[in-house]
What does this fold into?
Amino acid sequence: MPWSLTVPSPILCKSDGLSFPSSPRINGCHSPSSPSSLPLCTPTSPLPLSSISVTTPLSPSSSSSLKSPLSLCIPKPPQFSLGADAAVPSLAKRKKPPMIEIPTPVAVKMGFAAVTPRGEEEVQVDGEGYSVYCKRGRRGKMEDRYSVSVDLNGDSKRAFFGVFDGHGGSKAAEFVACNLDKAAMAEVSKRCGDAIEEALREAYLTTDMDFLKEDVGGGTCCVTAMIHKGDLAVSNAGDCRAVLSRNGVAEALTSDHHVSRQDERERIEALGGYVDFCHGVWRIQGSLAVSRAIGNKHLKKWVIAVPETKLLKIQPECEFLIMASDGLWNKVTNQEAVDLVRPFCVDVDKPEPFSACKKLAELSSWRGSFDDISVMIIQLERLQLNVPLIDHSLCRHVRSGSQVACI
It folds into this structure.
């Protein structure tokens, strides 16, 4: 059966039934040669139905009924008839256009910016008497560093440990990790054994001045532990923290240097600086959220490198020491950390401090930490058993009796 299509588009007609010539812009065709019919125009690409006009010749009755010189002829509504022998008109198929590629400066995948140097995704160190686990956060390049110096001057019970959380880049953390231990031992050797607190203070300040001479931006928070003649000296500048497990009870050996601390805020304001609440955090000059750190040349007037140090005798009840960056402590409390680590390290035949380090980092990450997470566990119990802190057969980088790890 025949197939026909009529679209209700108005056609102007004369009173004698003849159609006016159509506009050349309709469907892209010129006016038809026959005044009583319009040909089917097949454009190069299919158009909506309203742009296709198919009409039959006007009947004499319709032309004779027109009275005015100019009348409007409305064609019949569309009529469809299908049959077995119907010839369906074919329209030229439009090819699918190619996908438009819009260039993007940053491609994000799994929370990491693809254009940012990835650096180390994680660092795993399982030493004798200590373990370290560092996990890169979701903000960019890894900025945390750590250092371990053991068997100093041939004494297996003399060691220096550090965790450093860089900001504004990793240069400061890397510099401090490779130099602070040497500065500390140099200062200790100048003084009597009772002046270790003063020695550590001078070591922090000397390292800070040396880094500022490098004329490099950024800074780093620090937490360090020096074991010397049976004493434990823990120092910090910034918000890295050290927590001691004393018979299963968490004891913070450091106090975070946040701008919100009353004494730190008063010191900054007394020096002409200002502290304001910006993006949910108290900051110096609307910028840095810590009041003490090594580096930060542009804020050096207020951000000092003077550490706070706590000394204590290592007693049998001192089980282990946890040192970590704020990537851990922002999501895990002191007691939670001790409770998680203790089953891996205390009253077990084979301690697994490295597994405990990794579990802590995973817990913080699971709770939503976006920051780099660095965790170090030092087994203080080993000192009570006269066990060396390191097996020299496993030492890969030995320099003057020290192992220094800079990641």
Observations:
- Residues 119-255+308-403 form a domain with the Phosphatase 2c; domain 1 fold (CATH 3.60.40.10).
- The mean pLDDT is 76.
- Residues 246 and 396 are 32 Å apart (CA to CA).
- Helices lie at 60-64, 171-190, 196-213, 262-270, 326-329, 334-345, 353-366, 381-384.
